[in-house]
Amino acid sequence: MNRRTLINQLSAALLAGVVSLIGVGCADADQVTAQDRGLVLVAGATGRTGRLVVSNLLEQDYPVRALVRDMERGHEILGDGVEFAEGDVRDIDSLRAAMQGAASLIITIGSSRKDPDNGPEFVDYGGVRNLAQAAADTEVPQVVLMSSAGVTHEDHVLNQMFNNILIWKSRGEDALRDSGVDYTIVRPGGLMDSPGGETAVVFEQGDSSTGMISREDVALVCVAALQVPAARNKTFEVFGGEEQPPNDWTNLYSSLKSDNER
């Protein structure tokens, strides 16, 4: 065997080894991507949108911890596939305990008209502020907040009907931004209980439009924010569109300006 033949054979063997290693590396990386899902704490997990967030997270193999005030009711609504933490968004100490070990937090809480102590000031503002502070205290890396379109319009009819709910939601947004935690603030339009995934969604900024969106689609948007680095530190409105899915979450989030650019 001459020297050139030997070199060629060695080169071929070396190349095959590199390809083999790359193949193993890619397979391992894909496996880690599929399996290494950090624990997600969901606040508002038993609500109409929150339970859809939990369901979507489980479908994507995320470990989920549900923050609930009533453990029995939580089990009745969400079943046994999730971990539970008992806490109240009005009690920051209970929130710090619930966040131990969480890699991210999704907030879908909402106030009640029936209980004054559970009104917008104490939940949509105070509760979000407490959750944001507890996340900062326990070093949770990312928070996704479901807010509402229209929060910048103080004369909005919802403020007149529901104890300034959008004003309090806006203050909750500010508290999250000021917390120092990486965040994504999702402002859906009017929420519908229709099936999700049937139309593409539209991302906008400027709080100048109105529209409707499926709760299931809002859940998809919130969970996608955990997977796309470009989602961090952005605030936007989301509505149902007229195009057909699927949605390209990376492109949608990348199209948005971060809050410090606006």
Short description:
The protein contains nine helices and ten strands.
Explain this structure:
By secondary structure, the chain is of the alpha/beta class. It has a single domain, classed as NAD(P)-binding Rossmann-like Domain (Rossmann fold). Helices cover 42% and strands 18% of the residues. It has helices at 3-35, 50-59, 71-78, 92-98, 121-137, 157-161, 165-178, 215-224, 249-254, and strands at 40-43, 64-68, 83-86, 104-107, 142-146, 182-188, 190-192, 201-204, 212-214, 234-240. An 8-stranded mixed β-sheet has the order 3-2-1-4-5-6-10-8, sandwiched between helices. Strand 1 (40-43), helix 2 and strand 2 (64-68) form a beta-alpha-beta unit. The model is unreliable at 1-35 (pLDDT under 50).
Strand composition percent: 15-25%
What class would the helix/strand composition place it in?
Answer: alpha/beta
Distance between the termini: 69 Å
Across the major sheet, the strand order is 3-2-1-4-5-6-10-8
Strand runs, count: 10
Quaternary state of the chains: single chain
Helix content: 40-55%
CATH architecture: 3-Layer(aba) Sandwich
Mean of pLDDT = 88
- In the predicted model, the low-confidence regions spanning at least 5 consecutive residues are 1-35
